Amino acid sequence: MSAQFGKVGVLYGGKSAERDVSIMSGTGVHKALRSAGVEAHLFDTGVRSLAELAEERFDRVFIALHGRYGEDGTIQGALELLRVPYTGSGPLASALAMDKTMTKRIWVHEGLPTPRFETLDRQSDLAAVAARLGLPLIVKPPHEGSTIGVTKVTDLAGMRAAYDLAAEYDEHVLAEAFIQGRELTVAVLGTGAGARALPVVEIVAPEGNYDYEHKYFTDDTRYLCPAQLPPAVTQRVQEISEAAYRVLGCEGWGRVDVMLDADNQPYLLEVNTSPGMTGHSLVPMAAAADGMNYETLCVEILKDARCKVSGRSS
User: Which branch of life, at top level (predicted)?
Assistant: First the structure.
């Protein structure tokens, strides 16, 4: 196995608001790859430089970074310049998926279902936005993940505080119509026509509050995998998740978040191109339901590492 992959870097940590989660993900991936006989080495992009990354002369890298500078196309572009094959999507798809507003614009153009939305800045009439989208609504920074900076606004009085919180992370803020229903997520493996959805996961959080704490640090949230849905609904959710992933040009692996309303109509929320790989993470859970353990999943993702711009695969 080691000879097949050569010297592998596991990029983790980073400088984003999701650094702590990335450290957990990278540590898990590193351990799994080492257990599989891969010569894997941890590399913290938050404390080490690109010059040091070049000096390591990795044969390929597994990106276990989340958020800015790791999931937004920046590190992917650097790896293209260094000609180091890497896991996941290329610079363009990573940048698009990281920007939830651009993602939604593409989905709307392609006829894929996503909640109605508006982009806010400091001059926005928040009351008018609330009137157009209706309450409750979701206010979030479009370039963050792990529910960081996200608020569910239930009354007009809460709009300003929600905007101010999201604006701490982003210059422009996304307001999105709230979909009451079931929270689902779909892992997707592969590229292009070969991309396939894994079993659907349903997230059942206390009082519907699937926040940062409930995602990573408590056992209060329940996960149902495969989700107990009518077969036709499962198929529809998987199909639109695959379509959402493909139209952005995603590659290798990812995770699509979906809301399912009371009429079993799915609405796409976002795509994560470098999903969590912690003990609470959902891609490993879906893979397990598909007969693939954590170690095998990490190896399968690593097999698909390549440069997307130059096309180098080894």
Answer: Bacteria
For the record, the structure tokens of 224 come out as: 């149902």
CATH of the domain at 81: 3.40.50.20
- Is-catalytic flag, 314? no
Q: Which of 22, 89, 241, 281 is catalytic?
A: 281
Domain harbouring 269, CATH code: 3.30.470.20
Please tell me which residue in 25, 146, 241, 274 is annotated as part of the active site. 146
* Dist CA 137 CA 127 (whole Å): 12
Q: What angle do CA 221, 152, 239 make, to 5 degrees?
A: 65
**What pTM did the predictor assign?**
0.92
Contact indicator for 237, 185 with CB cutoff of 8 Å: no
Q: 207: annotated binding-site residue?
A: no
Q: Flag whether 160 is in a domain.
A: yes
Whether residue 18 lies in the annotated active site: yes
Over the stretch 66-95, which tens digit does the pLDDT of each residue have? 998 999 999 999 999 999 999 999 999 999
Does 264 belong to an annotated binding site? Answer: no
Task: Determine if residue 270 is labeled as part of a ligand binding site.
Answer: yes
Q: Is 146 a catalytic residue?
A: yes
Q: Give the bridge partners for 306, in sequence order.
A: 86
Determine the pLDDT at residue 217: 44
Q: What is the mean pLDDT of residues 215-226?
A: 73
Is 303 inside any structural domain? no
- Of 18, 71, 80, 242, the catalytic one is 18
Same domain, 211 and 103: yes
